[in-house]
Amino acid sequence: MKFCANLAFMFTEATSILERYALAKEAGFKAVETGFPFGFTLEQVKQAKEAAGIEQVLINLNTGDVSKGELGVTAVPGKENEFKEKLKMTIDYAKAVNARKIHIMAGKLDNVTSQNWETYERNLKYAAGLLNEANILGVIEPINQHSVPKYFLSDYGKAIDIIKRIDSPNLKLMMDIFHLQQICGDVTHNIKNFMPYVGHVQIAQVPNRNEPDTPGEINYKYVLEQLANNGYKDWIGLEYKPANGSKAGLKWINNYGFSL
């Protein structure tokens, strides 16, 4: 198992995402994943990542103003040009930090129509072509409605149907076990069934989104075994809220028989 720190959730004692690169390295991580680094230039992010001497696995699409709840426009008709601009900008950042994956966020919508699904699929098809040229993998993630009400994509079946129709090696599924459990459960069978389409995995305990070994619904010793048994060998993002400090909370990794 290879674990990378999610800098949106971990090492938040440093207010700047730039400082978190170094803190992740000091804690023993070899790699990180991040949201889009709003407020920082491409050069600033590249310098912070390189100074820390750490790998970047994934970066989220530029979603717009997250303080206003904006989580992308991929499924919003009439904003196709905005989507394309944000995608191109994110690809530039990904190349700068040598991230090989981009999480394409769908957006939040009050009322979903067939037009939203058509726009979403059309934009993802465009993205797959652009990502192919850049040799970057795009991933889409169903997000549960408890954590992010009104998030457009909260259905694994629909996500996989779209991935199948677009049929590109540059578009796969982000399978966050935290969301999987709350959307459809049946974790053992779903890991097996979804694995052919998976491009990235994230984990956190349910329902409080803390470390995997904290009290909750998921037996992560078993789940991590299932991921390995079904052939997943790539990075696993630790997208959880540390219960008592990022570094202190990492003891679960050794307790489960793994290392950073």
TrEMBL record:
Superkingdom classification of source? Eukaryota
Q: Which InterPro entries match?
A: HyI-like, Sugar_Epim/Isomerase, Xyl_isomerase-like_sf, Xyl_isomerase-like_TIM-brl
Question: Could you give a GO molecular-function term held by this entry?
Answer: hydroxypyruvate isomerase activity
What's its EC? 5.3.1.22
Where does the Xylose isomerase-like TIM barrel domain start and stop, copy by copy? 22-255
Q: Name one Pfam family in it.
A: AP_endonuc_2
Q: Catalysed reaction(s)?
A: 3-hydroxypyruvate = 2-hydroxy-3-oxopropanoate
Q: What class of enzyme is it?
A: isomerase
The active site annotation covers: E141, E239
Keyword terms of this UniProt record? Isomerase
Looking up PANTHER family in the UniProt record yields: HYDROXYPYRUVATE ISOMERASE-RELATED, ISOMERASE
Role of this protein: Catalyzes the reversible isomerization between hydroxypyruvate and 2-hydroxy-3-oxopropanoate (also termed tartronate semialdehyde).
Its family remark reads:
Belongs to the hyi family.
Name assigned to this protein: Putative hydroxypyruvate isomerase
